[in-house]
Specification:
Blueprint: H1 2-20, H2 23-32, H3 37-51, H4 53-56, H5 60-72, E1 84-91, E2 96-103, H6 105-114, E3 118-127, E4 131-135, E5 140-143, H7 149-154, E6 157-166, E7 171-177, H8 178-188, H9 190-194, H10 197-205, H11 220-223, H12 225-241, H13 246-254, E8 257-259, E9 265-267, H14 293-307
Antiparallel strand pairs: 1-2, 3-6, 4-5, 6-7, 8-9
Helix pairs in contact: 3-14, 6-12
């Protein structure tokens, strides 16, 4: 089995290299990226594929289209920045794995701030013991934040708060309890609901999930619940009451979708899936100094082949 997986991985990488160096594909990349930025763009794609086993199994066009959308929006694919991700999942209709474009909450912030409409924009996880009161009628919140950053980071969230203020003074706020956010996640994420939802998340946070069963909990709602919750808060707040630039509208419209070569979006998260099919999200890591030199050389080879042909 290990040998078969190794061969499959090698074939996928070769396929991706050949795909990226096709004349039509190079033309497509240059039309969006262009010039000297091509090297950085190619490196970001190859790096993401190398560090994410499930992404290696995705179709090449879906990987490229997700990456090109992020590039067009001037967002970074670096997981550390959390602006957008390429997320592998099983498309049962087509019988293949495809890469899905997924906007991170920091991507929402980037795009909103660039629009120039917002004087203030913030989203925050409210920790246990911090909330004194939230008045939904007047949209006023009173909190006493934990001063010690280390202690605060380790304290579980009890809710989530988001707000914006325009340059003209118009202000809007929103607060959701964690219970409400859990209900939202179970309603809109099949991967979260199917694998136990709120109950499984609680066990996961307590370290009570056996290592052999961790593969079931690859959804970002399990891996980074607070991050997904803050993204949800910004999406709810801005889409209902905020002014959205064309880039922000594009990102919101195509979030959680497979982007086709013609730019159309196919949404699949809500599709029914069997118990043995698990959406496998992109790992929160990237190629760094820890990556073997052989991998870095593969990056250079692909870049060289792309730009010298």
């Amino acid at each position: 089995m290990a040998v078969q997986n190794s061969l499959a991985s090698r074939q996928t990488k070769t396929g991706l290299t050949a795909y990226l160096t096709q004349d039509a594909v190079k033309k497509q990349i240059n039309s969006v990226v262009g010039g000297k930025n091509g090297t950085r763009f190619i490196s970001s794609i190859v790096s993401a594929v190398q560090v994410t086993p499930a992404l290696q199994e995705c179709t090449n066009p879906s990987i490229l289209s997700a990456a090109l959308l992020g590039e067009a929006l001037k967002l970074s694919p670096s997981p550390q920045l959390g602006q957008f991700y390429m997320v592998p999942f099983d498309n049962k209709k087509k019988g293949v794995k495809e890469a899905q474009f997924q906007l991170g909450y920091k991507g929402y912030i980037q795009l909103a701030e660039r629009s120039g409409y917002y004087k203030k924009l913030n989203v925050l996880a409210i920790k246990e013991g911090e909330l004194i009161q939230y008045d939904p009628l007047n949209e006023e919140i009173e909190v006493e934040l934990i001063e010690d950053d280390v202690i605060r980071e380790e304290t579980p969230a009890m809710g989530y708060y988001a707000m914006f203020e325009y340059e003209n003074g118009f202000r809007k706020t929103m607060y959701w309890s964690k219970k409400k956010m859990l209900a939202h996640a179970e309603k809109y994420s099949q991967a979260f609901k199917r694998n136990g939802g709120a109950k499984s998340l609680e066990l996961l946070e307590q370290g009570k999930i056996p290592e052999k069963e961790m593969w079931k909990y690859s959804s970002f709602w399990f891996k980074d619940f607070d991050g997904m919750a803050m993204k949800t808060m910004l999406r709810q707040l801005i889409s209902k009451w905020g002014i959205m630039s064309i880039d922000l509208q594009t990102a919101v419209d195509k979030d959680m979708a497979v982007i086709h070569e013609d730019g159309s979006a196919e949404f699949v998260e809500s599709e029914p899936e069997s118990e043995d099919t698990v959406v496998s999200d992109q790992e929160l890591n990237e190629v760094s100094e820890d990556v073997p030199n052989s991998k870095k050389e593969e990056n250079k080879d692909i870049e060289s082949e792309f730009f010298n042909n």
